Amino acid sequence: MGDLQIEMLHGKDQGSQLLHHPDRVTVEGLIHQSLEAKEFSYCPYSNFRVGAALLAHDDRVFTGCNVENACNNLGVCAERNAIAKAVSEGRRSFKAIAIASDLHDQFISPCGGCRQFMREFGANWDVYLTKPDGSYLEMKVSELLPVSFGPEDLSMKKVVKIPNEY
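Given the sequence above, the corresponding structure tokens read:
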């Protein structure tokens, strides 16, 4: 189940407990921070609040929320906001991200753009899709974006085309 130490909690109603390590962030703690980040969302157009909490390999957590814009395509998703914040502070390697919304009946799932943005930083890290009650579904980036394109693909062998002379 990744680098986070987990016994088995996938829903509060199951009564399981997370292992708590004073020097490590737990899944429950990461989800809680994503729920808190959601409260700062700026979403006057969709009223669809999203928060994210990103865990870097040095155990630092970076949060983000969605920020909409009247020019629709200039809005920024919570996941990309958290990742950009982490990258701007020198982090490039991540253990996990928890994503929160107000969806009651289903787990929040990142949009395609956010999936590709996460993939830029690796395919084998944990993504926690949550509900407001704290229950979650754990997936890897590679499961959310199978057969993906990443930075390593840019160094793969390519066909060299000789330009036509006119």
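The CA atoms of residues 40 and 65 lie 6 Å apart. Try to locate this feature in the token string yourself.
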